[in-house]
Amino acid sequence: MNEFDLVVLTADMDNGRLKEGDVGTILTVYSEGKAFEVEFVTLTGEAVAVETLLPHQIRAVRSSEMLTTRDLAMLS
What's the 3-state SS for the chain? Predict the structure, then answer.
């Protein structure tokens, strides 16, 4: 996985805002793929979170997948 690749979160995050299946963009690759800085945004581009994740916490987007939505305002 490389910078600017879209990736999918493989499990819910402890912070409660990010859920398995959320799509993010890799901003930085650390130590040849040992960790990744990933940004998650709303569909209008508002930043939701930037997380440092390990390889087992994300996976590459598959060409057969379709994006879905969920309303973060419902979490409040």
Answer: CCCCCEEEECCCCCCCCCCCCCEEEEEEEECCCCEEEEEEECCCCCEEEEEEECHHHEEECCCCCCCCCCCHHHHC
The model's pTM is 0.91
- Measured from the Cβ of residue 16, the count of other Cβ atoms closer than 10 Å reads 8
Cα 76 off chain centre by: 20
Tens digit of pLDDT for each residue in 1-60? 999 999 999 999 987 889 999 999 999 999 999 999 999 999 999 999 999 999 999 999
Does the domain spanning 6-62 belong to CATH 2.30.30? yes
Read off the amino acid at residue 15: N
